[in-house]
Amino acid sequence: LAAIGLLGGREPASGITYEHGEIAQNLVAGRGFVVRFLGATGPTSQQAPFYPLLLAGVYRVFGVDTSASLLAMQVLQALAGTTLVLCVVWLGWSLLPEAPIFGSMAGWLAAIYPSHVYMVTHYQAALWAALSLTALLAWVAWPAGKHRWTKALAAGLLAGGSLLIDPILALALPPVAYLFWRRDRDMVVADGWLNGLWAWAGRMGRLAAIALVAALVIAPWVYRNFRVHGEFVFIKSTFGYAFWQGNNAASWGTDKIPKSSDETLRLAHDGTLAGQHQALWNARHETLYIDDVLLKPTGYRQFAGLSEPERCRLLGREAWESLTRDPPRYGRLCLRRLRYFLLFDETNPKARHRLYRAATVAWLVSMSIGWLVLRPRWRTLWPLLAIFASVTLFHTLTITSARFRIPIEPLSFLWAAAPYAVLFNRARGGWRARRAAKSLEIESDAFGPQHALQGPHTMAKDRRPERLERYSRNGGGRLPS
Predict the structure, then answer these.
(1) Model confidence over 410-469: pLDDT tens digits?
(2) Are 337 and 395 contacting, i.e. CB atoms less than 8 angstroms apart?
(3) What is the Cα 35 distance to its own chain's centre?
(4) What is the DSSP string of 360-412?
(5) Which of 340, 397, 409, 439 is the most buried (most CB within 10 A)?
């Protein structure tokens, strides 16, 4: 809420909700799920339905694109961000119940991580994708749950809802299914081959129930896409378009390119290494949206008479043909996108902020150390690593942006929190030892031979050495009463 008060109103009101706001306005006006995209206005699958529908609901209550509606949306996102923090703790406690400090410390990182605080002020679906994915993983990893069929049905609802927020989260579903299978298997110990076969059939049935419920959740939207576009479209139609943005002849690997200035052009043709470096530096600090440079206004003529999926496929083929003519360039773009994804997106002005860069470096270093600290638990945590790696690989091969990392960042906080959890445990152990020693010292003074109120208790056997011995055997734990 403080971030909303300090940062939420600094940007101009027009255009900050992007395509989501335009679709929401058309929904409130009764025109349907419509937006202007690639030079044409009409029913679209450019965005997944959840966020525009949520924004349209807020518009209907507080007014279309008013300051009250934008503030209400930000407050709603602040509540979602708070819930995300609790889900991170829940996930850590579920996966590592023997060491709850890891989940608690991961929750602290999620609560104070700058980009996660700042994202509640932006009108993007990344926050909701992070919340849905983390909640789904925490739910399937939760060791409790006597009603396993109910757990499976709820997991299917969460999985389908996640796809309607961001279809890229489909990459996370195989590790989620494995995590559910493993937890379901651990709940029941079957004696005999017949009981074991029955238990196996039950686990397979619950996995099938998850898939069926998720399919039912997304089925209305997929059917709507078929009616609108005349072909099967899985949630969004823009894969080819996004691939073109990240891989066309002028692309830097993202949806932005450096802005050309007279000084940049002069330095670029200077011929010296210093001039080339300075030109690159200047270009990276002024960027333009790639559609504005390559498509507007005359580039849209090539899309005449094509449906939205066909327009996206046309751009995808154009980018692919460009890459096949120069395969090494595609390799360089992928390496650049990997660097942008894990460190700094130099085409994004907000990723150049010092706080963002410092937090990113701290996150990456902490996560690398945490992998070593949690090495004995890799077998437990590998589904999280598989999700993180698959989403990272997808954006490395296609297109990246600073916000694309947000949905999977909460999964990495368990590793990033590990070194701090170890340090905290050691500090807490030392504090307990000092507190215990001080309590023994107080007892020595209070019940010593010089105490003013001596009585029968002074004749009792001194058990302090036994208590100290038991305390050392317990490894510095709580003193026995």
Answers:
(1) 999 999 999 999 998 888 777 666 666 666 554 544 444 444 444 454 454 555 556 555
(2) yes
(3) 27
(4) HHHHHHHHHHHHHHTGGGHHHHHHHHHHHHHHHHHHHHS---GGGGGGGHHHH
(5) 340
- Check residue 458 and report its DSSP letter: G
Q: What are the structure tokens assigned to 119, written together?
A: 């994202």
**At 288, which helix (H) or strand (E)?**
strand 287-289
Query: Which residues have CB under 8 Å from 439's CB, separation 6+?
Result: 479
pTM value?
0.83
The C-alpha atoms of residue 457 and residue 189 are separated, in whole angstroms, by 54
Q: Are 82 and 3 within 8 A, CB to CB?
A: no
* Short-list 245, 248, 228, 244, CA closest to 236: 228
CA proximity to 364, closest of 390, 397, 338, 401: 338
Determine the Cα–Cα distance for residues 140 and 121; give it in Å rounded to an integer: 30
What single letter denotes the amino acid at residue 387? Answer: I
The DSSP result for 16-82, as a single string, is TTHHHHHHHHHHHTTS-SEEEETTEEEE--SS-SHHHHHHHHHHHHH-TT-HHHHHHHHHHHHHHHH
User: What are the CA-CA distances from residue 93 to residues 90, 142, 246, 374, 410 (Å)?
Assistant: 5, 8, 38, 14, 14
- As given in the structure block, the two tokens for residue 49 are 């339905």
Give the pLDDT of residue 146: 59
Phi, psi of 258 (to 5 degrees): -65, 145
The predicted pLDDT at position 283 comes to 42
Radius of gyration of the chain (CA): 28
**216 token code pair:** 């039912």
Q: What is the DSSP letter of 350?
A: G
Q: Residue 74's pLDDT is what?
A: 94
The structure tokens listed for 138 are 């925490």
Token match 């026995």: residue? 480
pLDDT tens readout for residues 265-309: 344 334 444 444 444 444 444 678 888 888 877 778 888 889 999
* DSSP state letters, 90-142: HHHHHH-TT-HHHHHHHHHHHHH-HHHHHGGGS--SHHHHHHHHHHHHHHHH-
How many Å apart are CA 422 and CA 420, to the nearest integer?
5
Q: What tens digit of pLDDT does each residue of 320-378 get? A: 998 999 899 999 999 999 999 998 888 887 777 888 899 999 999 999 999 999 998 88
User: For strand 287-289 and strand 40-43, is the pairing parallel, antiparallel, or unpaired?
Assistant: unpaired
Q: What is the pLDDT of residue 159?
A: 97
